[in-house]
Design brief:
single chain; Arc Repressor Mutant, subunit A; 9-stranded mixed sheet
């Protein structure tokens, strides 16, 4: 094999592809942003090193030889790949391409992450975004494994905080949702004591949402509901609310999503005689991880949403 073949440069491949396309050396030189003499010397040097003519010079222009046809076919592919690489890398560096992986608790996802993703995709549709909405426990496990670029969640007591940059992101509070024909749906003020004997649905033990409700019952001196269905699925919660007098524990953001258009679910929030707050969640990003421009851009958009 001629070793020169392995040392051919992209600009040489671009010139061969341009001559094959236009059939004129002058046009090809313009396409490659070089002078006609420079293009002529480059082509002559290639043919001399290869020991074969790539183009037949005719009065009507330049016509590919068999060797030129083979080389130009590969040259077109190489030029396309180089141009594609340049486009994608430029987009990546400018935050207009690449990928972002995010994890978030429900409140953070609905209030900040999803609106920020939509804004990012509007301006940079080539960015590939992956969003997982889950519990803080699961999100922290995946963040520590490197699954996400960053996450909005609640770090556990065992989290090695020096491994992350941590910024307070937002608060959530508990809302109690029922269907519109629930016996207490039209009561002016509802207490936990009035609700204790109804069926309830909430997250599993240890979840911040459930912990907040359990603490509220404890502080009120009321026994915890014994008729309980454990789920964090919004679809399951909606089905339970449709078919029973269940009291559903949801965040304000979930309630707003279900009660607002276009969903406008036939549900209502109980006017509680006390506010039940959940511990705040935070934006965590690994200190030792290089963030892509797209991820940095999404974080800025999320911070803007959180600041409103």
């Amino acid at each position: 094999m001629n070793p020169y073949l392995r040392s051919l440069r992209p600009v040489q491949m671009r010139l061969v592809a341009a001559i094959a396309r236009h059939g004129q050396l002058s046009l090809a030189a313009d396409m490659c942003s070089m002078s006609l003499p420079a293009a002529s010397r480059m082509l002559a040097s290639m043919e001399a090193h290869l020991g074969v003519s790539l183009f037949e010079r005719t009065a009507k222009g330049m016509r590919l030889t068999p060797a030129g046809q083979l080389l130009s076919r590969h040259a077109r592919k190489l030029v396309h790949d180089v141009d594609q690489m340049a486009q994608e890398l430029t987009a990546h560096l400018e935050g207009l391409g690449g990928s972002v992986r995010v994890g978030a608790v429900t409140g953070g996802a609905l209030s900040a992450v999803i609106p920020a993703i939509l804004e990012l995709k509007h301006n940079a549709p080539l960015v590939e975004v992956s969003l997982e909405v889950s519990s803080s426990t699961h999100l922290m496990e995946e963040l520590e494994r490197g699954t996400y670029d960053f996450a909005l969640c609640r770090p556990g007591a065992e989290t090695v905080t020096q491994d992350f940059e941590i910024a307070r992101a937002g608060n959530e509070n508990v809302q109690l949702m029922v269907n519109r024909i629930h016996p207490l749906a039209n009561v002016d003020r509802v207490s936990l004591e009035q609700l204790a004997d109804y069926p309830w649905t909430m997250q599993d033990r240890g979840a911040p949402l459930r912990h907040a409700v359990e603490s509220a019952f404890h502080d009120a001196g009321v026994h915890l509901p014994s008729n309980l269905i454990k789920t964090s699925s919004v679809v399951t919660i909606m089905a339970l609310l449709r078919d029973s007098d269940v009291v559903a524990v949801v965040t304000r953001e979930v309630a707003e999503l279900l009660l607002s258009p276009p969903f406008s679910a036939d549900l209502t929030l109980l006017p509680m005689d006390q506010v039940i707050d959940i511990e705040p969640y935070y934006l965590l990003r690994p200190r030792d991880q290089i963030m892509s421009a797209a991820a940095e851009r999404l974080i800025r958009l999320i911070h803007q949403r959180l600041a409103v």
